[in-house]
Amino acid sequence: MKFTINRSAFIAKLNDVLRAISSKTTIPILTGLKIVVTPQDVTLTGSDADITIQTVLSSNDDTFGLTVEQPGEIVLPARFFSEIVKKLPDDQVTIEISDGFQAQITSGSASFTINGQDANNYPRLPEIETTDTVKLAGDVFKEIIGQTVIAVSSQESRPILTGVHFVLEGNHLLSVATDSHRLAQRKVELPDAIEQRYDVIIPGKSLTELSRMIGDSSDPVELRISENQVLFNLGDTWFYSRLLEGNYPETSRLIPDSSETTAELNASAFLSSIERASLLSHESRNNVVKLSLNPADNVAKISGNSPDVGNVEEDIAVSSLDGEELEISFNPDYMKDALRSFGQSEIKISFTSALRPFILVPTENEDNFVQLITPVRTY
């Protein structure tokens, strides 16, 4: 096996595949990077058994400047190999397998030799047998992930809540995540209707890594689902993830359909106020801020208190305030995550009582996106 390739283009693809490779694996060969070379292309594969990423570097793509002299395959120690390639002196790098499973890496005046493993011992890729494909613009899918993955649980005691629940039916996609303290729900319309109904739970960790690979491009992401795997096709890169097993809890009944008090305000401006208030709340043991709403006087205040440091109080600019007077306390970190997911848009916050969950929705498309937060009892 021997090929020469543009080093910077190779590193970019290498970084994508490295997202799937963990040093903490019970299968030693999975700490390695699988390289398969054919006369037309080079395929890189990385996996930690939960996530598998495969990308193809084609000789038809001038970006790679790929020249294949001899096909072959090998598994090389991933982290070590990538560090070497990143520090090589020249624009081009040549990788050659000679005696047994030894790889020689040369670039300019530098030459490394490292030990590899037999690629035949590398686990096979998961098989996705379905032909049903869901297409969605990359930037839209990245937005869906960003708006929902913030609410997945980090507690392994309830594994099902560490994923995002996706329901695809007809031309509708519903995604929901909750950690039992907060909830995020997003609905989108698919460009093409699908024949089969899918109800799957994708690990939050997988979606976070996928989001980083999508970038801000509007290029379509293709989604294919099988019994226990999901495949995302990003052009010349395939991203596989296992699915979580079990039934996701019924979440639709958690979202209140009536309210006693509502406030409309700018998400970005409110976020800045919460960030200031949380400077003190983080110093106290309970990490709570309080929101006071008085619709009669059109006054909204945020306050935080730390017995050791001091307190903060700030008036909040609201475009409208309706309903009953209310004082409610909540975790500011949950509120900050929720507000960031709305960007610069105007939002409506609806409250039913001081001890009941409240919801945040965009004022323009109230039905398509909901963030729910459970308040904190302070007495």
Automatic annotation (TrEMBL):
Provide the DNA polymerase III beta sliding clamp C-terminal domain boundaries.
253-377
Q: Name one GO molecular function term.
A: 3'-5' exonuclease activity
GO BP annotation list: DNA strand elongation involved in DNA replication
Q: Which UniProt keywords apply?
A: Cytoplasm, DNA replication, DNA-binding, DNA-directed DNA polymerase, Nucleotidyltransferase, Transferase
Q: Which GO terms describe its cellular component?
A: cytoplasm; DNA polymerase III complex
The UniProt record lists the DNA polymerase III beta sliding clamp N-terminal domain at 1-126
Q: Which CDD domains match?
A: beta_clamp (cd00140)
Record Gene3D superfamilies: 3.70.10.10, DNA Polymerase III, subunit A, domain 2 (3.10.150.10)
Q: Where in the cell is it found?
A: Cytoplasm
Q: Where are the transmembrane segments?
A: none
- Domain of life here? Bacteria
**Does the entry feature the keyword Nucleotidyltransferase, yes or no?**
yes
Boundaries of every DNA polymerase III beta sliding clamp central domain copy: 136-250
Q: Which InterPro entries match?
A: DNA_clamp_sf, DNA_polIII_beta, DNA_polIII_beta_C, DNA_polIII_beta_cen, DNA_polIII_beta_N
- Family recorded in the similarity comment: Belongs to the beta sliding clamp family.
The record's note on quaternary structure and interaction partners says: Forms a ring-shaped head-to-tail homodimer around DNA.
Q: What does this protein do?
A: Confers DNA tethering and processivity to DNA polymerases and other proteins. Acts as a clamp, forming a ring around DNA (a reaction catalyzed by the clamp-loading complex) which diffuses in an ATP-independent manner freely and bidirectionally along dsDNA. Initially characterized for its ability to contact the catalytic subunit of DNA polymerase III (Pol III), a complex, multichain enzyme responsible for most of the replicative synthesis in bacteria; Pol III exhibits 3'-5' exonuclease proofreading activity.
Protein name per Swiss-Prot or TrEMBL: Beta sliding clamp
Q: Which organism is it from?
A: Paucilactobacillus suebicus DSM 5007 = KCTC 3549
Q: Please name the taxonomic classification of the source.
A: Bacteria, Bacillati, Bacillota, Bacilli, Lactobacillales
